[in-house]
Amino acid sequence: MSRNSANGGANRSLPSRLRSRFEGPNTIGESRGFWVGFAVAVAVLVVYPVFGDGSQLSLFMVLALLGLSLSVVWGYSGVLSFGQVVFFGIGAYTFGVVSINYATPGGITAAVVAGIVGGGLSAAILGYFMFYGGVRDVYVTIITLVSTIVMHTFMAQTAGSEWAIGEAALGGFNGMPDIPLLTLGIEGASYQFIYNPFPMRVIGIGAFEISPFYYLVLLLLIGTYLGLRILVNSDYGRVMVAVREDEDRTEMFGYNVTRVKFVVFTLGGALAGLSGVLYAARNVYIDPTVFSLLFATLPVIWVSIGGRKSLLGAVVATLAVEYLRISMAGELALVLLGTLLLVTILVLPSGFVPWLHEQLVETRLGPGEAGGADAPDASSEVSD
Amino acid sequence: MLELDGVTAAYDTTPILRDVDLSVEDGEIVGVMGKNGVGKTTLLKTVMGLLEPSEGSISYDGTDVTHASADERARAGIGYIPQGRDVFPKLTVEQNIKMGETIRSESDETLYDQIYDYFPVLEERASQEAGTLSGGQQQMLAIGRALVSNPDLLLLDEPSEGIQPSIVDQISQDMQTINDDLGTTILFVEQNLGVIREMADRCYAMERGTVVDELGPSTIADEDAIAEYLAV
Amino acid sequence: MSDTETESEVDSLGPNVRQTAAELATGDRTETLLQTDGLVKQFGGFTATDDVDFSVAEGELRCLIGPNGAGKSTLLNLITGSYEASDGSIYYNGHDITDLDPHERVSRGISMKFQVPSVYGDLSVRENVRLPVQQFADGEERRRLVAEAIEAAGLTGYEDVDAGQLSHGQQQQLEIGMAAALEPDLLLLDEPVAGLDVAEREAIAERITRLNEEQGIAFVVIEHDTDFVASIAEEVTVLHNGEVFREGPIEEIESDPEVQRIYLGGES
Amino acid sequence: SAGEGGTSTDTASSTDTLKIGVLEDQSGNFALVGDPKAKASMLAIEEINANGGIDGMQIETFQRDPQSDNQRYQELTRTAINEESVDALWAGYSSATREAIRPIIDRNEQLYFYTTQYEGGVCDEFTFAVGPTARQQLGIVLPYLVEEFGPDIYTIAADYNFGQLSADWVKVLANENDANVLGEEFIPLSESSFGSTINRIQEADPDFVMSMLVGANHTSFYEQKASAGLDVPIGTSTAMAQGYEHRRLDAPAMANIYAGVNYMEEVPTDSNTGDGGFVDRYFEMYPDAPYLNEEAETNYFSTYMYKKAVEQAGTTEQPEVVDALESGIELGTEEAPEAPDGETIRLDGATHHVDHHMWIMRADDEHNIEAVENRQIPETFLSETAGCNLPENPEQTQYTPVDYYEEAE
Amino acid sequence: MVNGINLALQFLDSFAFIVLAAAGLAIIFGIMGVINLAHGEFILIGAYTATLAVTQLGLPLVVAMVVGGLVTGLFGILTERVIISGAWPNYISQRTLGRDVIDPLYDRLADSMVATFGLSLILTQGARIRFGNSIDQIATPFGAISYGAFSYSTYRIVLAGVSIGLLLATYYLFTRTDFGMRARATIQDKETAQAMGVNTDRMYMLTFGIGSALAGLTGALFAPVISMQPTLGDQFLVEAFVAVVVGGPSVVLGTALSGGVLGAILATFSNLYGTFIGRIALLVAALIALRFLPDGITGFIEQLRQRRQESD
Ligand SMILES: Nc1ncnc2c1ncn2[C@@H]1O[C@H](COP(=O)(O)OP(=O)(O)OP(=O)(O)O)[C@@H](O)[C@H]1O
Ligand SMILES: Nc1ncnc2c1ncn2[C@@H]1O[C@H](COP(=O)(O)OP(=O)(O)OP(=O)(O)O)[C@@H](O)[C@H]1O
Ligand SMILES: NC(N)=O
Ligand SMILES: [Mg+2]
Ligand SMILES: [Mg+2]
């Protein structure tokens, strides 16, 4: 916590200046130790498919993007949205519809973009409808919840042949199969990411196959995480947090609070859309269960359990909760899962990751010296 | 009537009150003064039972109430007017006043008349939501609400804050009247020198969480002496 | 001012409110900065402000007093845009701002401190102050302005403390500091010293006077502490029953028997 | 406890054990139907293992509860295929579930049995849709009801693919039987209030109603129509045989309801209700089980079909097993208790569907079930109308009636 | 054809469903700031208790229904003590660890959602383990009335009557009695209420208990007409949330009004265009209502009243 005084204002080394963009009071992880740990974690994820079920982890990482989208919208800007799955689902369906109609590498690449835009645009529309209409607080939560239910009810009944967009039948409750395999690039210069295992041979380990999709998702997840760290530690991020803390007050500083919420909500929608695109691409399938009440609740669970004011928390909790959900078996599985959620939120209300961070910081500094998880240290000034 | 002996109290783990000794006799009006943040509000909350002392004891009316809950103390006759505007914002003015009565079995019309007499605006706005009153009106409501409970010991935390000067004077007089007529014992915190001089029989001075001095009537009459405690 | 501003680096988030405060310090003080015209605010059947014509000149320091419930806070809230006027208009720098959003009024140079302190409790003092400053300053300059604002609020050493943990008086100081850090042309303060001890009252009085004199910020201050009012104000407006009751120099007002009757009491 | 049997490798499957994946809902919206499915699979497996297994190989199982959640189905399907290397997979109640996992099945060329009565039309080289199709379910019950009560039909159906396609089939069959559909209404799966539906039926005043309601919420319809005094006869492909409403609801809510099914616990064949029959064996293994339903029997006999095919192929290698299945496996009443004594059911190799023995089962005022009519009804839509022939023309399509019948539009 | 009687009866039906679905949730959410995602499971408890009380214990239906409500109320109190306020765990931890382990969930919307979601998983699965995938259902009492070509379940009309009665009773309890005043005061400012002599712990407990009992009673009342299985509560959730929020700040009045408005929309559109359109219409109406009346119906009424007074 004395780093700033050690290498003072302007003449800091390049790595530390670079690092400073990722750091600030709005994120956990201000120390060299954190970044070392981060690098180790990334390295583990890179080699994980050699040992474990990379396919499953790729799903969790896709969902972690959805978790991150809620973390920005809710954890950093205070808008508790139950509708991230709407933008997720719209992203997924848009990707499906566009790619089925234009099943060439260029078309599929465009479908990815369309999915992200679709997620963002639908969030923009809903956001405009709400925020510029003066809807606030729990009313936002319920409007987004109702939007989810509307989507679920509506999409489930699009089974008839009249519900087709070009070649793509929406397929109702049965969903949309026949989505082309995710391929990025243009004709002649493209790469297919799904069902295209890449054979590897490592001396000492042997031969195995790795999934390019896994690494695509890993890259996107790390990129998104770091990108959001920059965002939330920027001036704009500070305003987002101010909006979360007190909207009226922030308005009184001349900030257009409505616009901030609108912009962040749209960004969150685009991110959820990206997650949806990857979800549909991975499963080569999408159906309306993504709009179900259960699925809509999950992001709120991940982000609450991980720590809503922590991007890292959203990621870690998504991976952990989804792993547990899939792998717990037997009659008592749901009882145990329920108990786990209940106890975690009661005992660690600010979330698991901030709690862990606090423990680590405290053991490092000794009790009494440590601030709270989000307590700023002197180094926060460097993020200016 | 009230006796604090070596009371230490903390929010979470940070100690705020340290080893406070203080006593109030039956029928007295005792002031507490001190700079911002020395722990005056914390002292009153501890007396009221909203904060449990970690050490020391509190006795009220001869019984030990150190570990009694706030509502028990309220039923035992301690009334409290919190600092700031702690009215129930979504209840009407009338309901707020009725809340003051919850500890008594039947309502006393004459008390109402008296309160409306002091603060006519409360009667005019009986069915307005308390949260929409002006700052000063809320403060009046808080006082009126405490008075209907007709407490034996009344705790007042900066009653003059936000109140127009003419009513501040009136409040000091009214408190004395209540003290005279009903025998209500009063322990109050104030920043307003005038109010302290006007009301207090005796006064404690606090610094950094503890009582550092006790001022008798003669000292209280001396404006400069009080200013010293509040200013330095 | 901001209607004429052409600065290229206006942050997309907020206003550029820096320039004019300094300009004003040297400028002409008789120009009308704010003018309300027949301003009415009704709550249900109750009229809180009734046809109020109220004006503040550039660089002026005006106090607003009056009985509890006279409509003082309501008037300030109308000026900031927190309340929508039932009738009447508000002019600022000659422009009609009656229908502007609060944040737009701030970007034109009006800043306000609420009656109840409302700093960002979970953010550090530094983060609190940085929020207004970052709108118009970057890098080294920002650092300097933040440090200055913290120092002016007497909070040096508390930079990394959560604002919610500050004492009442410190929060008031911080809030004034944040409002002033916007370098507004007009700063509205609702009971800035309520609940403060004598020493802190003096500190805030001094602070207000200095901001007014050195930076030319015009003030409207609501306060019930008459000593405090006397120590800062030149001009006083008395509201009563939602209407402007008296207006004039403080000495005149204090000795007005009608004001004494409705507000000051006996021979206070 | 993933993979109790340890991760089996490709080579292990051709030795002394083989592995079957069973993914059926034991919680969630479809648990009522899914739970007996899982149990019946286990019954068949235990019987086979007790009798020396398949070609001397004992059957291991990979069994999980997908909780009526399609995402979970997809992951468990991947696990079953990639981690557990199952030799054959049974999975899913609803058509939506089937479609959710079919891309994974097809991509991995996994032998898959879908054992629910469904809308029909799936022509997929890796999928054996061995439950009766809408044409078979409605094919037995609808003509009978037209004959008995008259030609005017009102259709109510679950508002998703199964319901909508089934409603299309009602129109096709009405046309073929000189009946007419007065009206149809599709009900969202989440709906459980049927006041307006009941009024609309009364307003249309049909001779009988065809009901293809699905899931726990829709069950409420029957009690609500009874308490509203609506006593029109009802034909159904979904009620009673799947969710045993005649056992769960107080009589006479289900009175005068006619179910077109290949099986239900009350089907009066000797091998079913006789001493030591299917019903006895099931409740001996699961004394607390509430009911033995239509899909359970399908799981049961299809496990025996698989056994026969493996024995015929002499290997568990999936392409060879599929070839054996496509040769046309036949089962008698012992393994397929829906078939009366002396009759058989047959897997049609061209379409991967089964020529079922269909029954009309009627509930009376006391909810006693009687068999009104029964006969074999072959699958015809894929084989005759759509021309599905998988051994010759491998494909992964679902055909729908609108493409072939004007009246379905 | 829009038949007036049909429409009226269906309106009553929808109204009763929405109001009963929402009542318990409304109190727990509106008064305590707790979003109870286990609301559906509280309904389940009421429905199962009433059903089993009839089929296993042979109690008369009406008694069984009251029992359903009471048992759920008691379960609610238990939930409040253990989870929502954490009072019991804290009592233990105070004596072992010397500190509280749980912060009460009052006014912590999202946290209360996660916690009660966990609870709902436990309850649903618990019911499944204990009672299987369904239990036998009881018959609907009172028979049917008919008019022309139509007939209608008498019980559904009784339900409408009961829902109105419950609303009135709840309204009276929370706005006209000292208990209601104290409960509301407790939620608004716990410390001050304590200082006024209110045993706030008991207020929280009772308020939650009453909300739970209402949910349980809803389950009991609908037990004869819905399918008895562990997820039966889910079908009430959507209407419940929508009604509560569309209703706005005055909990009981709001629920009644939104039950009326939404019930009318649902009945009309289902009647004219079928169930699917009815449902979509309900949801879209809710979206529009929330957008244009961001404070709900009662917030809007408040504004109207003010405006009218202004123009006087
Ligand atoms: N809920 C709380 N948690 C932690 N610390 C608190 C809390 N409330 C007050 N404090 C701290 O306790 C100290 C004493 O506060 P208290 O409110 O008792 O002071 P006071 O003498 O009443 O001041 P003032 O004159 O400003 O009202 C202050 O430093 C304050 O920051
Ligand atoms: N939302 C509202 N509904 C009804 N009446 C209101 C509302 N807000 C304010 N009022 C009334 O308007 C009047 C003016 O209130 P205002 O807060 O402006 O007074 P003030 O002059 O600031 O008083 P104080 O000095 O006590 O703070 C008061 O009588 C108050 O009760
Ligand atoms: N196949 C069905 N019933 O969905
Ligand atoms: Mg205080
Ligand atoms: Mg005011």
TrEMBL record, chain A:
Entry keyword set: Cell membrane, Membrane, Transmembrane, Transmembrane helix
Where does it localize?
Answer: Cell membrane
Name of the protein in its database record: Urea ABC transporter, permease protein UrtC
Q: How does it sit in the membrane?
A: Multi-pass membrane protein
| Organism name | Haloarcula argentinensis
Q: Which InterPro entries match?
A: ABC_transp_permease, ABC_trnspt_urea_permease_UrtC, LivM-like
Q: Does the keyword Transmembrane helix apply?
A: yes
Give the source's domain of life in one word: Archaea
Assign the protein's first listed, main location to one coarse class: membrane
Q: Where are the transmembrane segments?
A: 33-51, 57-76, 85-102, 108-131, 138-155, 213-232, 262-281, 293-320, 332-356
From TrEMBL, chain B:
Q: Tell me which Pfam families the record gives.
A: ABC_tran
Q: Which InterPro entries match?
A: AAA+_ATPase, ABC_transporter-like_ATP-bd, ABC_transporter-like_CS, BCAA_Transport_ATP-bd_LivF, P-loop_NTPase
PROSITE patterns under this entry? ABC_TRANSPORTER_1, ABC_TRANSPORTER_2
The domain of life is Archaea
Q: Name one GO molecular function term.
A: ATP binding
Protein biosynthesis keyword on record: no
Record-annotated ABC transporter domain positions: 2-230
The UniProt family comment states: Belongs to the ABC transporter superfamily.
Its protein name is: ABC transporter ATP-binding protein
From TrEMBL, chain C:
A GO term, aspect molecular function: ATP binding
**Does this UniProt record's set of keywords contain ATP-binding?**
yes
The transmembrane residues are none
> What UniProt keywords are attached to this protein's entry?
ATP-binding, Nucleotide-binding, Transport
ABC transporter domain: residues covered: 34-266
Taxonomy, superkingdom = Archaea
Report the Pfam families cross-referenced here.
Answer: ABC_tran
InterPro entries, per the entry: AAA+_ATPase (IPR003593), ABC_AA/LPS_Transport (IPR051120), ABC_transporter-like_ATP-bd (IPR003439), P-loop_NTPase (IPR027417)
Q: Does the keyword Transit peptide apply?
A: no
Q: What is this protein called?
A: ABC transporter ATP-binding protein
Give the organism the record lists: Haloarcula argentinensis
TrEMBL record, chain E:
Q: How does it sit in the membrane?
A: Multi-pass membrane protein
- Which keywords, in A-to-Z order, does the entry hold? Amino-acid transport, Cell membrane, Membrane, Transmembrane, Transmembrane helix, Transport
| Residue intervals passing through the bilayer | 12-37, 57-78, 155-174, 203-226, 238-266, 272-293
Is this entry keyworded Transmembrane helix?
yes
Where it sits in the cell: the answer is:
Cell membrane
Q: What is its main location?
A: membrane
Report the superkingdom from the record.
Archaea
Q: Which Pfam families match?
A: BPD_transp_2 (PF02653)
Which protein, by its recorded name, is this? Urea ABC transporter, permease protein UrtB
Taxonomic path: Archaea, Methanobacteriati, Methanobacteriota, Stenosarchaea group, Halobacteria
